[in-house]
Amino acid sequence: DQQVKQNSPSLSVQEGRISILNCDYTNSMFDYFLWYKKYPAEGPTFLISISSIKDKNEDGRFTVFLNKSAKHLSLHIVPSQPGDSAVYFCAASVSGSARQLTFGSGTQLTVLP
Amino acid sequence: GAGVSQSPSNKVTEKGKDVELRCDPISGHTALYWYRQSLGQGLEFLIYFQGNSAPDKSGLPSDRFSAERTGGSVSTLTIQRTQQEDSAVYLCASSLKTFSGNTIYFGEGSWLTVV
């Protein structure tokens, strides 16, 4: 039973355009959501997070949106750059506990120059 | 180095053999986690160590899996009598005392292939 789902295994976007990566979850107990970025042969690195008390968090070119009623979050990258090409993992946790950190299967983003 | 270090980076083993994967966390990090990623799957939690507390082993998939952390630092994940479904990337991560998503640091992973 996948509690965090990333239904698009891959996404291609032209440089300069917006990238939108989507994530759905089923566990209503999740109250903290994160996005990690992973380059080949490297471990995932933290990108951005959002608490369930917010519906938007912005950090430079990256914005995460949370729709609690739909149990959906998305990551927007504007403008997309070739260096953004990586696998993006959505993750969710309960009360900030790493023991409850549940990851999605990832979306491979390719930004075309 | 300053990051989480894992070894070996790649391991090919025959079905039925035992393997040991090592993780050296960032100095001063009291929390250590093991995850694995099978092909097409998300990162799956395996085990969590926090200081001197009893580890949270709730994610270990079977009794063939065990992990220990000696001296509050280096950790070893052991898989006994490996099976083909154990093939995955095994990721170690560490963080300061309590988890906050932006302070969890992952190693590069150990790629395990069971043939």
Entry summary:
The complex is a heterodimer of chains A (113) and B (115). By secondary structure, chain A is mainly β. In chain A, 0% of the residues lie in helices and 53% in strands.
**Quaternary structure of the protein:** heterodimer
Number of strands of chain B: 10
Mean pLDDT of chain A: 92
Largest interface: A-B, 27 and 28 residues
Category from helices, strands and their pairing of chain B: mainly beta
Topology:
The complex is a heterodimer of chains A (113) and B (115).
Chain A: E1 4-5, E2 10-14, E3 19-25, E4 32-38, E5 45-51, E6 56-59, E7 62-67, E8 72-77, E9 86-93, E10 102-103, E11 107-112
Chain B: E1 5-7, E2 10-13, E3 19-24, E4 31-37, E5 43-50, E6 65-69, E7 75-79, E8 88-95, E9 105-106, E10 110-114
Parallel strand pairs in B: 2-10
Antiparallel strand pairs in B: 1-3, 3-7, 4-5, 4-8, 6-7, 8-9, 8-10
What does this 3D model show about the protein?
The complex is a heterodimer of chains A (113) and B (115). With 113 residues, chain A is mainly β. In chain A, 0% of the residues lie in helices and 53% in strands. Chain A has strands spanning 4-5, 10-14, 19-25, 32-38, 45-51, 56-59, 62-67, 72-77, 86-93, 102-103, 107-112. In chain A, strands 2, 4, 5, 9, 10 and 11 form a six-stranded mixed sheet that branches. In chain A, strands 1-3-8-7-6 form a five-stranded antiparallel sheet, with no helix packed on it. By secondary structure, chain B is mostly beta strands. In chain B, strand 6 (65-69) and strand 7 form a beta hairpin. The model of chain B has no long low-confidence stretch (mean pLDDT 90). Chain A binds chain B through residues 2, 4, 6, 9, 32, 34, 41-46, 49, 89, 91, 93, 96-106, and chain B through 4, 31, 33, 35, 40-45, 48, 56, 58, 91, 93, 95, 98-109.
